[in-house]
Amino acid sequence: MLLLKTDGLKTSYKITVNKGISGLIISSPSDFNALNKDIEISLMVERANGANYEITNGFLNLKQFIVASTAMADQIVFFEELNVGFCATLELTELGAIHLYEKDNIIIELRGIPNGVSAPYFHIFGIEEPITTDTVFSFERKNMASETTNQDFDVTGFEMVLLTGLDKSPNEDKTQLALTYDNGVIVNYTPFELCALFATVDPIVLTAVDYSLCDHNDYLILPLEGIINLQIRKDPKSGILMLLKRS
User: Fold this and answer.
1) How many CB atoms lie within 10 A of CB 59?
2) Over the stretch 7-38, which tens digit does the pLDDT of each residue have?
């Protein structure tokens, strides 16, 4: 069902959905590479009893949210004949629509959208399902300050992490990521090694209108199945941002 069609006049939108959905379809005539980095999205299940469930835990960068939601899942596509520069299917549950009890709602907010003649336009659809579930994905942000050279992150229960700020060049060997598995084994990788390994798992991540791969160089996506701790060792030259997905 269509939830929102932006009009290029407003910089923010708020949608109240009173029917359970399992995910979102977001489409735009704009090219995904050109998606404005100031655009943010927030999703929350608003419970009538006050026990609200934060899906995004505040506002997230829309482009990062799309990449994290489609990793190891749905490909970002385009429909040139329909003037759709990109179309992304973002799953919010493993199976079934989010169960809404009486007077519950799903609140979706967008902000930071440029307005005027060059404004990006979006269509947002909610995916209906014949069954419902109380198990809903959530996302959490963590960061590593530029001056920090060694830091551990508890990633127990998370499905994947999207990292921004890592040098993925094959010449970069000072940055190391140590992964501790639930059997106690620790393995070490450079960012390039992880980049190469993930490419074999999910080789076609994004497809652009010109049939080339969309710009994916800003991110490193790491599946976290069986991993309980992520240790990052690096030079004190740049910070690292992390977006984790919990299933």
Assistant:
1) 16
2) 888 899 999 999 999 999 999 988 887 788 88
